[in-house]
Design a protein that fits this description.
21% of the residues lie in helices and 31% in strands. The chain is of the alpha+beta class. The chain has a single domain (2-244), classed as Endonuclease/exonuclease/phosphatase (Deoxyribonuclease I, Chain A, 4-Layer Sandwich). A six-stranded mixed beta sheet has the order 3-4-2-1-12-11. It has a six-stranded mixed beta sheet with strand order 5-6-7-8-10-9. A hairpin with a 5-residue loop joins β6 and β7 (99-106). The protein starts with a strand and ends with a strand. The relative contact order is 0.16.
Length: 247
């Protein structure tokens, strides 16, 4: 199984940027996608089903969404979240009966407020993270046998060396993941962006899965292969993981 996430930088469906992105989406060919800063007009074809977040909490083009989850195999059921603008969730039932809870997110970045919480001292990040953690815990309680996947644009690196975010936010995120027994497979030694460009950057888009995953982590990966290739494509590398798991 291949799971991937990518921030599409608000590309419009008819733009050259979106066409280049579609070529990569087709090339990566993930089983599960969590696209962020995306548009309802950027679709993955008839083979996929999707669930998207609601109207964004900022001005934008008609059809823009913070999050859209796409799946190639199985039955997809939308689930409620605490933040209909910046998150989306769905219950995926695979052909073998295994259930996965998929949760896509965009957390506040440095300088970004969230609802009534200001950006200063990480207040917005902490408040949004706490609300989303409540979602993760509630969904785990509701579907105790399901694999929980939380993925998207976390706006925070999770490596020892600082890249983006803050120490306060990094610690809060690590603790939140630990409390619901989630493992981030795109950080530390598995950070594909850090490996790809020899430590110049770290990854802030992550894919986290339940510790008791019914399969084995194979590898993480990122695209495109060079920093220069991001020009006109996105301001984020795409990242993915491969899991040895029979569909």
């Amino acid at each position: 199984m291949k799971i991937a996430t990518w921030n599409l930088e608000r590309a419009l469906p008819q733009s050259v940027q979106a066409e280049r992105q579609r070529q990569w989406l087709s090339r990566i060919d993930a089983d599960i996608w969590v696209l962020t800063e995306t548009h309802l007009g950027i679709t993955l074809g008839e083979d996929y089903d999707s669930v998207a977040s609601g109207l964004p909490d900022r001005p934008g083009d008609d059809g823009e969404r913070w999050v859209q989850i796409w799946v190639k195999t199985g039955e997809l059921k939308p689930l409620e979240t605490c933040d209909a603008a910046r998150t989306a969730a769905a219950l995926l039932t695979l052909p073998n009966g295994q259930q996965w809870v998929l949760y896509g997110t965009v957390l506040p970045w440095l300088g970004s407020s969230w609802r009534e919480y200001p950006a200063s001292q990480g207040q917005a990040f902490a408040a949004a993270l706490a609300a989303q953690w409540d979602d993760w815990q509630r969904l785990q309680d509701s579907y105790p046998q399901a694999v929980l996947v939380v993925a998207g644009d976390f706006k925070q690196d999770l490596n020892a060396l600082h890249y983006y975010g803050s120490r306060r936010n990094k610690q809060a995120l690590r603790q939140a993941l630990d409390r619901v027994r989630l493992v981030c497979f795109t950080a530390g030694e598995n950070d594909p962006v850090h490996q790809l460009i020899h430590g110049q950057h770290s990854n802030i888009d992550h894919i986290c899965l339940s510790q008791d995953l019914p399969g084995q982590f194979q590898r993480s990966f990122a695209w495109p292969s060079r920093l220069d290739d991001l020009r006109g494509l996105s301001d984020h590398f795409g990242v993915g993981v491969e899991i040895a798991f029979a569909l």
